[in-house]
Amino acid sequence: MMRKFVTALLATAATVATAQAQTDYFAGKSIDVIVPFGQGGATFVSAKFLEPYFEKHLPGNPKINVIDRPGGGSILGANWFEKNAKPDGTTILFTTSSTANPFVLGQQGVEYRLSDYRVAYSHPFGAVAYVSPSTGIEKAEDIKNSDTPLLYGGIAAAASDLPALLSFEVLGLDVRSVLGFSGRGPVRLAFEQGEMNIDYQFSPVYLTQVIPSVESGTAVPLWTGGAIEDGVLKGRDPIAPELPSVYEVYETLNGKAPSGIEWDAYQGIASVTYAYGLTGYMHPDVPQEVLDIFEKAVADINADPEFQAQSKKVTNGAKLNAGADTEKSVKAALSPSEEVKTYLRDLLSEKYGVKF
What we know:
- By secondary structure, this protein is α/β, with parallel strands linked by helices.
- The chain is built from 13 helices and 12 strands.
- The chain has a 5-stranded mixed sheet with strand order 2-1-3-12-4, with helices on both faces. Strands 8-5-9 form a 3-stranded antiparallel sheet.
- The longest helix is centred in the N-terminal third of the chain and has 23 residues, at 2-24.
């Protein structure tokens, strides 16, 4: 009897010690969130938006440092993470498909092992395409009737611009693309200055910085990337339910549903980009305990009334995701079919000069 009592007591003590360790895990520590883009873009805006909530809900209330490391369409920042990330959960790579696509496609210069990283959390959001009123375009159906050449600005063809570029392929649009911007913030400024006349912005920036331009008449929203409906990226995105999806625009222009390799490539890449738009990656050797801590913190953040209210403004209420299922889905999304991969590599190398 005494032995059972002692065993139970030790087990209880171990449980209390574990809980205490988790409670104090990040006490006195700081976490560097590496954003491989310039300030002003959706990734940086989202990282800064989430910063106070992770400081509030992670045990020990660590200081969150959002650090921008732009360059190479996000490749330079991701390569830095590969070489410098700490395996204790105090270094996070917070990035988009701009980083995932070059890895998946084997782009030249990629040194990071994205599929080996652990997934701490993910922040989904959509994107909206819009044009300058100088094009004469008033709605999505007018897109092929403009006499003004369409000029799009982006970071890199194999980066988070890829869904936008693929949507142009799906819709059969003749769009000239100027790539090499350090982030979507500078792209938006170029649009506002009249240097570009068609743009895509993700929901944090669209809702907070583009909507004022729409309201003042200096930007015309056209369509969203879409939302998954019956397993297909055809539904209307809650970010702007009044706008059609790319799928719907194709139907309107062609009288039939989209199909073919262009659509397959768009649906695959866009689903990854929007369903897991922003993902926080950690070192491959980070302890499971840290991932469990982040999963609980994410649940607490999603339940935080202040986060819910502010998220409505920034991402139209999108919740964070975390845990084993999220990690499994993100890693699966890094593995497109060989047919789609071949199409993408050919398109990117022949049309945009991407080297693999």
